Each structure stands twice: as C-alpha cells, then as structure tokens.
Amino acid sequence: MSSSEEEVDSSDSSQVFEYGSASGMPFGNISSVVEDINDGNDVVSGELDGNFNDADSEGILCGGFLYCVTVVIYIFYDDCKDEFFGFLNCGFLCVFKLCVDNISQTMEEDADGSKLYTPVVDESLRPKVGDFFETIDVAEKVFRKYAAAAGFDVRLSNKKTNKYGITTARFFVCNKEGNPTPKLYDSLNVKSGERRRRNSNLKRSGCLACMKVHYVKLRQRYEIYKFNEKHNHMLFSEQEMSLSRANRELSFGDQCNVFNACVSKVGISKSHRLRNISKGNAGLSGGTVRDYQNFKRDMVTFVGCKDAKMLINTMVSRQKCNPEFFFEFKCNEKELLAIFWADEIARMNYREFGDVVSFDATYRTQKHAMVFVPFIVVDNHKKSVVVGAALSRSESVVNFTWILKAFVKAHGSQPRLVVTDQCPAMKQAIPIALPNSIHRLCMWHIMKKIKSKVSTYLVKETNFVADIKKLVWNVRLEPEEFEVKWKELIDRYNLGGKKWFKKMFQIRRSWIPAYFKDTPMSGLMRTTSRSESINAFFNVFAAFWDDLVSFLRSFDIAIESQRNSHCIEEVKTKSTVPRMCSPSKLEIHASTVYTRKIFFEVQKELIKAVWFCGWDGISKVDGKHIYVVTHKNKSSEVVAKYTVVQDKSEMTVDCSCNLFVRMGILCRHALKVLLNDDLDCIPDKYILRRWRCDLIPPQWLPARVRYGEVDIEKERLMAKAFVIIDRMIGRVRNEKELLQNVVEKLNVMDEELEAVVPLKPRHERRKEVIQELVGVHKSDAFDILPPSGISNKGSGKGKRLKSVREREGEKAKKAKRLCRTCNDKVRHDSRNCPMRGM
Questions:
Q1: CA 810/CA 795 separation, integer angstroms
Q2: Measured between alpha carbons, how far is 499 from 197 in angstroms, rounded to an integer?
Q3: pLDDT tens string 294-335
Q4: What three-state secondary structure class fits 205?
Q5: SS3 512
Q6: What pLDDT digit, counting tens, does each position of 787-805 carry?
Q7: I want to staple 169 with a disulfide (CB 3.0 to 4.6 A). Which of 214, 364, 600, 731 is the partner?
Q8: Cα 472 from Cα 482, distance rounded (Å)
Q9: Range name among 174-178, 195-199, 567-571, 663-667 with the lowest pLDDT average
Q10: Distance of alpha carbon 66 from alpha carbon 102, whole angstroms
C-alpha cells in the first residue's frame, strides 16, 4: 500500500456505513460507494482533498477504478466488517468482500503517463533479487507459481550456455514481452488469387516484467539478479486465469477424451461440452473448444500422408506378436492397392461357421475412398461376425480376385456357399478365386428393388408386393411349380414388358430358393442383408474423413463391440435356464446342447410338432418306416403333407421339407416322429457343431492389448487409480472439511510426484501422448503411400447413394403446385402437363 493510502484516516470510514444505515439503501456497486465517500481519496492526484469531485469521477472513467477500489476496500472493509456485518443489511459489504477476494493488481502511472500494473500476491510467492536455487528447473517452477498467483503467463526467453553445454543464464519473461512483427496488408486491395488473411489479435505488448537468473560459481547455484514485477497490461483475475495459456494446456484425461471422441465419431464441440459437464464447472475444463480442435489437428498432422505405411507397420507388428494374425497387401511402385487381414479369432470363427460367407463392398469409410469389404458369417447365436476384412483401391475384377485369393490363403479352405449382391466384378472374380464355391445372389437385395420397378398404383392399391413375396419365399415349391406361378403372377399384373422382371427370371437359378433347397445351409442366403447391417454398424464408428490409421482403430473398436455381444450371449446361455413348454425329454436335452437362440427355434418346432402336426399314414419299406405327416395351420386345416423316412437301425430321420439341410435343425415333422418314439435325446448327427454352445471361447481383451500395443498392467493401474479417486470424492462430497483434507493430501502427493517425475517440455509431452493414443510410431522414411485419384461408386460426393424409392419418397414430401393447364395441384406445370395440347 502506498504512503498516500497509509495516511487515510480509517475512522472516517464510519461515515460510509452511517450513510448506508440512514438512507436504508444498500450500495449497488463500488462506484456508488466511491461517490458517497465524504472524506475519500482523490483518484487522480492520489492526495486527500476532503471531497469526491469531478476529477475523481473522470479518473474512475479513465481507468483509475482499480486503484480506487484498492484504496476503498483495504481501508474500509477490514475496519468495518466486524462492526456492521452482524446487524446492518448493507448489501455493499458483499460487494466489498467479492472485490477483496478478486483483487489481483494495483495500478500506477510512470513519468510518460503509461499505466503500470503490479500484481498483489502473497509475499512468500514473490521472487526476490538475491534468491538462490539449486537448478534452473527449480527457478522456473518458482516463477511459474508466482505467475499463476499474479495473473500472467510465462515464456522462456534467452538462454546462455558455456562450452560444456551447461546453462549459465536463463531469462523468464511475461508472455506479452516483445513487440509484434509489423505486417503490411491492405484488406481493401486484395489481389486476385491472394489468400485473405484472417483477423487475429496481437498478444505481445512490449511488457518488461521478467526474472533473470545466472549461475554463481562460488555458490554453485543459480541466483536471481534481476526481477521486474511491473506489467504494462492488465493481469488476469483468479477466474480469468482458467483461460491463461498455462491452464489451457490439455491434461492427459482431456487428450484421451479428444481421441476417444474422434474414434467414436463424436464431434469435438460435443465432447468438450460433455467434459465440462462431467467436471461440473466450465472454468475447470482445462481448455477451450479451440484447444480440443488443435489437439485433433495435431493428431492428424502426426499421421500425415504416412498412414498407409503406418497401417502396414501395425499389421507387421501384430503378426510378430501373434503368428495367427494374417494379413497380405498389394501395392504398385509407391501406392497401396489392396490389403486383407484376419486376426486369430476371425480365423477361429471361420473354421466353425465358414460354410456360408457373405461379403459386400461399402464406401466412404475413410478419406482415401478405398472400398471396404468385410466378410461375414453367422455364428452359433445367429449373430453376424466378421471373419476377415479388406480395403481395395477399386471395385475391379483384378482386385476382387486378389482379395478372395488372400481370403482362401488366410483360412485354408473355400466356403461352401458365397452370397453377394449383383456386383459384376464380384460375379467374375468368384469363379476364378473360389471355383469350388456356389455363388448365389442375395434375395434381400433383389426384393428391396421390387417397389422401385413397378408403378405406385401396384404397390399401394394392389396385393402385388405381398403376392410376389409369398411366391419367392416359398421353400416348398418345386422349380417347375415356381415357373408356372411366376408367369401367372406376371400376366395377372401385366408386367410382361418389364425388362427387369425378365432379367430376374433369367437368373432365377441364382436367387430363388426353389432351385437350391437341397443345398446345405442355403437358408442363410439372406446373409447379405446382414452385410448391409454390418456396413451400417461399421459406419457408426468409421468416418469418411478418417485416415487409414484412424480407420483401423475404428475397425478394432467395432469388432470389440461385436465380440462383446458374443460374450454376453455366451454368458446368457450359461447362466440362464429357459422355460420348458412341454414334459418332453427332447426339449430338456435341446436346452443343454444348443445356444439360447437356436434352442428357442428348436423349441418352436417341438411345439408345432405337438399341436400342428398329425398322422396321415405309416408304412414300412425295406426295414425303413415311412410316415406321412400333415402340416396344419392355426385353424387346424391341413396345408401340406410331408414324408418322413426313419431308419431306426441307423438312427436317421429324413423329412422331405429339407429344413435340416437348409437350416441345420430338425423340422417339426421329424420331431413328431422322434416324439412318437419317446426318445430321451436328439441324435448327435442332427446336432450340428455350428449351433452348439461353448464353441468359441469368450474374448474380452481388446486388440491393442492382445498385440502388446498397450501395457495392460499400466492400463489396469490407471483405471484402478481413477476408480479409487472417484470413490473417495463420492464418499466425502457432502463433507466440506473432509473434502478439503482430501484436496490438500492430493496436492502434497502431486508435489512429491513432480519431484520424482519432472515434466518434459510441452511439445515433447504432446508428441508422446499422441504416439501413445494413436498406437503407431512416426517414421521419417516411408515407401508406401495411400492411393490417390480414387473415383469409386459412392465416393467423393459428400452424400450417400440413394435408391430410386428413397428419392421418390423425398420428392413426394415436397409441396405440390398449381398447374394452370389441368387446374390441379400436382408436381408439374403447364410446360410438361400431360393434358397439354389435348
């Protein structure tokens, strides 16, 4: 406090409170307090003049307010708070208290009229000329602690070293030290093609506040030989310090939050909001949205154009860690053309469920627009699982052939049945790479197009859609019956001239169930609809702006989610007992050998066998029993009859409906015969291995742990530390004293850890964190580039491809307009009205 402040008679302060008490009106702000001081301090001259005059008001408006507040508060608050807080309702005392808590600086003017601001801090924090430190780091820590209390940021300035590389002098300055470099730019006269400069604020103001230390040989320590605490700019208040450069540095938790948001397709702004809410105070967020965006930019820059090389390096590292991990890649002189990979669990899934495989190409999964091709099978819980994945530069026959050959090399065998959409390149590649596989088209893809191939009238006003679905999905029809009924349907709805229906009839052997109902597991032919579902599933995690490294990370997360679902189904199967619907021993046996999902399907067939199946004849030929089983509907009407042949000596039972061949479970007709024999269990030959429980062991570990890309013990300890701290806070959150005690102990522990593990420079810390999060090492040498110039279907348009039906649906939502020719609200005008010229 200055000498002029010390001369103020604090007893005069009572007049302020007497005025407040007499008027009965609390003071609204500091200005009103100052204006009502009869014997106050003159703001401009700094001397007592006995009256608050115009010069004082002008001084407050011109910037002397901080100085005035300092004088008023420190004189009056301490003298009067004890006397008046008890019984007077003086609102300005609360304002006084708030200002006392937030006082961070005093202001004065130098000889040339410039304003200088001196921070108000505890004397124990203020550095002093002549102080000694063991190391430069200790000196820096002291100055940064002082700066945090004072309200400014620190920048490391000049450094002097001797010939041995030992630092002999170090300058610590305010971050506003120095003057901005002048840049000539005329925003009113921008040349054609010149980049328009963005508006930016100047952060340097020529501040001279600093602390300088040098090495003293005699003491073998560093000494402060210069310290200037006066700044030429206003300092941060305590609340504003959260926006200082030092406090805006993202913590490891914030950086993990940004990374997790990126790989989960959560926007940076939303991630920042969630982080603020979780911390309970935006001032404690540890960074602004811009800081989050900058960290994301740094992660993208870290990978740069080396993502293809980093992807290959990651695959090589995983293969070294686990020889069961398989991958192959193909490139030309410099660019990646295609890559296929399958981990050990995917290969295990293929060995058990690889009889029917579906694959389909999807787009816009990464910024290079490479085609993503996941290979899908159906597991023992009837869930889609990935048994391999590929990225291809193009949808060409050559690339698809290479991918399929890599698939066979990875799994060692060809699938019995391959299901795809109507991609021409796939159609040509499959016979080359998979000559022993049966290629079928996905019915779901074809049936999805039906509504777009006929008029709206047929779709909405007739039973056409229901009739064609009933015909196409009828597995009981023979090929000859189907052909007759197809022609009847086409004639009935007058579709004989439609080229699409003619083409679908020509390729009927590739997609109609009647033509391959004897093919094992052909009931899974709708698997490509599962591919569509899997593509949508991957799109939840992958984004079209991802590089290849980020795409692999998103792929791993998606696969972990998929396998976690498998683990949940396994636990449900083990830990639950389904309710029995009959006293049959076959049902009890089925519940012990099948997974929950398959058991419920077998149980359904058992119930149908009891209530909806009957006998129409029994005979015996060549030692085999032949049963004619009726198939009834809910009205007890016989809708079909099937022949079941049973050989008791061989323990075989075959039904003409072929459900076991198509789906791998016994039909109701065969179960009717087994129930009649009062068997205790289903014969083993009719319990397919692919539907049994406990087939694939649950896999809980994520990919980065399995391949040693992260230290699992470290991850567990970090998670445990978070849990312990979270539990502590939850326990004492309503006990303020205990909470304060916890904070103090954590601060002590933090200081101890800081002495053991000193912080590295900021740029080194950020680089290490990015490398740890991304999971790859940056290499200066790279000989494989990502593909360029890709123009595949669905890429580079910013919008996904839409079907004709979807486009028509969007068009139907648009408002109609009045046609002046037909005088009706329609979707045309007079220029293209059908009635024009009539």
A1: 22
A2: 58
A3: 999 998 888 888 888 889 989 998 999 889 999 999 988 788
A4: coil
A5: coil
A6: 765 656 555 555 555 666 6
A7: 214
A8: 8
A9: 195-199
A10: 11
Contact (CB, 8 A) for 749 and 728: no
Domain positions in the chain: 3-103, 115-180+203-247, 249-303, 577-691, 711-764
**In the predicted model, is pLDDT for residue 24 greater than 70?**
no
Tokens 């860690």 appear where?
321
Task: Look at phi and psi of residue 24 and say left if phi exceeds 0, alpha if psi is from -120 to 50, else beta.
Answer: left
The model scores a pTM over 0.85? no
Cα gap 464→473, rounded to integer Å: 14
How far is residue 81 from each of residues 30, 94, 332, measured CA to CA in Å?
16, 10, 82
Residue 403: name the closest of 357, 438, 446, 442 by CA. Answer: 357
Fill in the DSSP letter of residue 62: I
d(CA 257, CA 268): 9
Q: What's the confidence (pLDDT) of residue 803?
A: 62
Helix H or strand E encompassing 647: strand 638-647
The answer to whether 258 touches 271, Cβ cutoff 8 Å, is: yes
Q: Which of 588, 735, 736, 612 is nearest to 667 (CA)?
A: 612
Number of neighbours of residue 588 by Cβ within 10 angstroms:
13
pLDDT above 70 coverage of the chain, percent: 79
Side chain identity, residue 611: W
- Length of the chain measured in residues: 838
- Which H helix or E strand runs over 638? strand 638-647
> Rounded to whole angstroms, what are the CA distances from 817 to 806, 808, 810?
21, 17, 16
Q: Cβ neighbours of residue 721 under 8 Å, at least 6 residues apart?
A: none
What is the C-alpha to C-alpha distance for residues 194 and 192, in angstroms, rounded to an integer? 6
Instruction: Give the chain's mean pLDDT.
Output: 80
Q: How far apart are CA 747 and CA 597, in angstroms?
A: 54
Q: Is the pLDDT of residue 100 over 70?
A: no
Of residues 302, 365, 439, the one with CA closest to residue 778: 302
Work out the end-to-end distance of the chain between its first and last CA atoms, rounded to an integer number of angstroms: 99
Identify the pLDDT of residue 66: 43
Segment (H or E) for 713: helix 712-732
Rounded Cα distance between 259 and 279, Å, is 18
Give the mean pLDDT of 432-444: 91
Strands 210-216 and 221-228: antiparallel
Q: Which two tokens stand for residue 118?
A: 């001196």
Element of type H or E holding 812: helix 804-813
Measured CA angle at 619 (ends 615, 623), to 5 deg = 135
